[in-house]
Amino acid sequence: MKTQTYLIYALYAALAMPLVSCHNKGNAERDTTMRKIDVAVATTDSVILHKTYPGYLKSKNSAKVVGRVDGRLLSVNYNSGEYVTKGTVLFRIDPTLYQDAVARAEAALASAISARDYAKSHYAAVNKALEANAVSKMEVLSAESAYNQAVANIKDCEAALHTARTNLGYCTVTAPISGFTTDCMMSAGNYVNGSGAPVELATIYDISTFNAVFQIEDAQYERLVGRDGGMGAPVYRQIPLSFTDSMTHSYTADLYYESPSVNQSTGTIELKGTVNNIDNELKDGMYVTVSLPYGRKSDAILVKDASIGTDQLGKYLYVVNDSNKVVYTPVEVGDIYQDSLRVITKGLRAGDKYVTKALLTVRNGEEISPVIVK
C-alpha cells in the first residue's frame, strides 16, 4: 500500500511540474511585452487664480502732427515709420504770405513807436507851455490823450507782430514729442488749408510704454477690492499678459487706473495697467488677454502642461490606474503655473498617476510598466 501511495504522489508531482513551468513562463513573457512609460504623480500647491479678460494696447503718449496755416506743402522731411526726436523738422509749408505779414507787422510797430515818441515830445512841450500860460489846459489834455493812445497802439502792433511771427513759425512743422511716425497724409506739392482748422499731417507714437486697457464686471471688481490691499496689492503690480501669437518676450501690466464710474450700458469698469515695451516688439492697438488675479486656492491640483492632450471632446490625460492600465480621462484645466505646470480644476485627484510622454502611441486600456518621473 505504501508503495502504491508513493507512486501516486510521484505521478502527481510529475504532472504538476510542467504546469508550474508554463505559468511562470507566461508571466515572464507578459512582463517583457509591457512597455515602460514615464508617468508622474499629480501634486498640489497653493496657487493664485486668474480670470482672463480681452483688452488692447494703447500708447501712453501720442501726438498728432498738424498744419495750422495755409500754404503749399514744400517738403516732407522724414521717412514714414522712422523714429524722430522732439523738435525734428518734419514738414515745411510755403512761408511767403507769412513772411510778408511779419514785415508788415514790423513796419507797423516801427511807425507806432515813432508816433509814440512824437506824442511824448509834444505832450512834454505843451506841459512846459502851460507853465507860461502859452497854451490852454485843454491842449495839454489832448496831448496827453494822444500820447496814451500811441502807447496803446504799440501794444497792438506788438501783439500783431507776435501773431505774424507765430504763424510764420507754423510754416516749419516740428515733432511735438519723440517717437515713431506714421505715414504722411499729404505729399509735397499739396495745399494745406490749416488756418480755419488744423489739418492732420501725421501722428507720432511714443511706444516705450503702453496702457493695457480692459473692462471687468462690477461684481468682480467688488471681489477684487475686498482682497487684502485691494487694487494696491502687490499681486496687481505684475499682471500676466498674453497675445494671439506667442511673443519673443513675456509681458506683465502694472495696474494703476480704475474708472471712477460703472458703464451703465455694459455693467463694467475700465482698468488700465502700464506695460513696458521690450525691443519695440509691441504696437499700438494690439489685442491682448489680461490674466487678472482674483483669489488663491491652497490645494490646487497640478500636472505637467505638456502631458495634457486635446481632441474634439476637449482636454484629457492618460491616467494610470492601480492595475497599471491606461485610462483616457477628460479633464478641465485652469491657469498655467510656474511656466510648465497646469492647474486641473476637474477630472483628477491629488496622487493620481498620469502619462507624461508617448501620448500619441499609448492606448486607452493598455497595460504598461510605469516609470515614475518627477
Per DSSP E runs of 2 or more residues, the count of β-strands stands at 20
Q: Span from first to last CA?
A: 66 Å
Q: What is the mean predicted local confidence, pLDDT?
A: 88
Quickly count the helices: 4
Helix content: 25-40%
Taking pLDDT < 50 over at least 5 consecutive residues as the criterion, the unreliable ranges are: 5-23
Radius of gyration (Å): 43 Å
- Give the overall form: elongated
Protein described:
This protein is α+β, with helices and mostly antiparallel strands and 374 residues long. It is built from four helices and 20 strands. The strands form three sheets. Strands 1, 14, 15, 16, 19 and 20 form a six-stranded mixed β-sheet that branches. Strand 14 and strand 15 form a beta hairpin. Helix 2 packs antiparallel against helix 3. The radius of gyration is 43 Å and the shape is elongated. It starts with a helix and ends with a strand. It comes from Lepagella muris. This is Efflux RND transporter periplasmic adaptor subunit.
